[in-house]
Every structure is written in structure tokens, then in C-alpha cells.
Design brief:
Elements (H helix, E strand, L loop, with lengths): L21 H17 L14 E6 L5 H12 L3 E6 L11 H9 L5 E6 L4 H8 L3 E7 L5 H15 L6 E5 L6 H12 L3 E5 L15 E3 L2 H5 L4 E4 L4 H5 L6 H8 L3 H7 L5 E3 L12 H4 L6 H24 L1
Parallel strand pairs: 1-2, 1-3, 3-4, 5-6, 5-8, 6-7, 8-9
């Protein structure tokens, strides 16, 4: 994208990839390219959002996503405020709407929200005038994680259309999986989901993906493996027999890759990695792992999102 060309962006908020068109997703990915370059400079700052204020409103613990949004805002010269539910008036009985309206009254420009309840960002967007960015809502969506995943794939493979992307793990409860499926299928990738039957959504095929419960089959033609983090609470609820059994059937290690996968397969993970569970350490740190690239690219993608929403608001 030419730097002097105004992006054709029309949305006030970024709530999910399900509601975005192929063209809108590509606008974000294209815009991210120019902001990726800023992260490689000696002085990693531009005055694009000087005078703007970004509030990170997190009702769930997060280090990576919150820090990434904070760095993205600061590199655009915006001011940032972090609000954690554990230290907010929510513990005193204040509702989400009340909290948001009080924040809005402080004349902020963006609210980045992470919430355990699916749909919370949508409620917020109808309640307040600042731009709302979904940083993860329940098991629904995590749009910026999927965008940085796709941005990383495109930079490493040169395209997304036609790629065979396999998402492995707890598909049912994963907002990362859902957003990736929405985005990747719109951009023309072939998506396969693989995991235990007890962690697979009913009729997930209707989202345009292929389903397999056999890891060897899933790996055979894969260009990209996006391996999801397994939550210990899933085992506690009896959704799979044991961590050991999960590792045996769905864990990715060097031996499995050498036997079944392409030699140039990309290994991705939203982090943090349970070493020795989803991925063995030699794979997580190996030649085809792009996990650290995802972290770097996440800042560029979030800078692009903040910029585009500012562009819409300034119209």
C-alpha cells in the first residue's frame, strides 16, 4: 500500500473478524507492513496518535496482549492507561456499562477490552463513543491475535490464499481458533482443525473447515501449524483423560514433524507455550518456529488497527 494513500476504512470498532470482509482484513494486513518497519528503527516512535488516549480495560489476566497494545499505542505517541478488574470498581458492584461510561467521561479515544463473557465488546461498542477493540471475549473471538497470525504467515510464505493451515488443540473453547478460521477462510486458505473429539465444536465444518482427529493426517500437507494452548481446567472437567494422553496423541515434537510434516512447515503458537505439552522445547525454539515473529508482528498489527480506527474517527 502506498503510504500517501488513504485506507478505505469505515468501521468505528474492531470487534471480530466474522464481521469483516476480505478487503477489510487485507487493509489491516497491508497497513501493518508500514508499521512493522517502525519496530526495526533505532527510534521506534511516530507522532501519528499524539494527543490520543488508549485505555486497556482487562477483566481477565493478560501480559502479552496488554503489553503489545500498550507498546503499539506508545509507538504511535498515544497516552495509555491500564485498568485491571482486580483493582477497579467492578469488585464493588459496578457494571460493565457503568465502568465504560465513567471511562468515556474522561474523554478517552480508545477502549481495548478483554472480558470472560462472549459479546462484552459488542455491548460496550453500543454504549460508548470511543473506538472499542476486542482483545478477547470469552470463547468467541480474539481478532488481533488472528490478524498477527495471518500477517506472520503472509510475510513468511508470501501469500495466504491456497495455504494449508492446520489448527491443533482445544478448538471448542478457543477464541484464537475461531478468529483464525473466520479470517483465513475469507482470504482463501484451506483450514483443517485437529484435536480431541471432546474439544471439537459441534458442526464446526459449517465454518468452512475440514475436521480430523488424526494428527498424522493433519500434518501431511500442512504449510502452517497453529498449535493452541491447552488449559489445565479442561482436564479437570474430564474433557480429555490426561495431559500425558493428550501429548501422546496431539503433541508436536521433532520426531512427529520429521515423520509426517513438510520440511518447511511453519510452527505457530499464541503463547504462552506449555513446554512439553502442545510443543516440545526443541520445536518451540526450532528452525521453523515463528513464535517470536508473532510477538514482534503483533505490535505492528495493533498499531495498524489503532491507526485505522483513528482515521475513521477523524473523518
Amino acid at each position: 500500500m502506498a503510504k500517501n494513500k488513504k485506507p478505505n476504512w469505515t468501521k468505528k470498532d474492531l470487534l471480530g473478524l466474522e464481521e469483516l470482509s476480505k478487503e477489510e482484513i487485507e487493509i489491516i494486513l497491508d497497513q501493518s507492513e508500514s508499521f512493522r518497519e517502525i519496530s526495526e528503527r533505532t527510534i521506534k516512535k511516530v507522532p501519528t496518535l499524539r494527543g490520543k488516549t488508549v485505555v486497556n480495560l482487562f477483566f481477565e489476566p493478560s501480559t502479552r496482549t496488554r503489553t503489545s497494545f500498550e507498546l503499539a499505542a506508545k509507538r504511535l505517541s498515544a497516552d495509555t492507561v491500564n485498568v485491571a478488574a482486580a483493582s477497579s470498581s467492578v469488585l464493588k458492584g459496578e457494571t460493565l456499562r457503568d465502568t465504560a461510561r465513567n471511562i468515556e467521561a474522561m474523554k478517552v479515544d480508545y477502549i481495548v477490552i478483554r472480558h470472560a463473557s462472549s459479546g462484552a465488546p459488542y455491548i460496550l461498542s453500543r454504549t460508548v463513543s470511543p473506538a472499542v477493540i476486542n482483545a478477547g471475549d470469552g470463547a468467541h473471538e480474539h481478532p488481533t491475535q488472528a490478524l498477527l497470525d495471518m500477517f506472520t504467515m503472509r510475510r513468511k510464505k508470501g501469500k495466504i490464499a491456497g495455504l494449508n493451515v492446520v489448527i491443533i488443540g482445544d478448538i471448542m473453547h478457543s477464541r484464537v481458533a475461531r478468529s483464525n478460521i473466520f479470517g483465513l477462510t475469507k482470504l482463501g486458505a484451506n483450514v483443517t482443525v485437529c484435536g480431541p473429539k471432546t474439544l471439537m465444536p459441534v458442526e464446526v465444518e459449517k465454518l468452512g473447515v475440514k475436521v480430523t482427529y488424526n494428527l498424522a493426517e493433519a500434518l501431511k500437507d500442512a504449510d502452517v501449524l497453529n498449535v493452541l494452548r491447552i488449559q489445565n481446567e479442561r482436564q479437570e472437567k474430564g474433557l480429555f483423560p490426561s495431559i500425558r494422553e493428550y501429548v501422546r496423541r496431539f503433541g508436536i515434537n521433532r520426531e512427529i514433524l520429521d515423520k509426517y510434516a513438510k520440511k518447511d512447515v511453519l510452527i505457530m503458537h499464541p503463547g504462552p507455550v506449555n513446554q512439553g505439552v502442545e510443543l516440545s522445547q526443541d520445536v518451540a525454539d526450532g528452525l521453523y518456529s515463528v513464535i517470536l515473529d508473532q510477538v514482534t508482528n503483533g505490535i505492528a498489527v495493533r498499531m495498524a488497527v489503532l491507526f485505522l480506527l483513528s482515521h475513521k474517527k477523524a473523518k
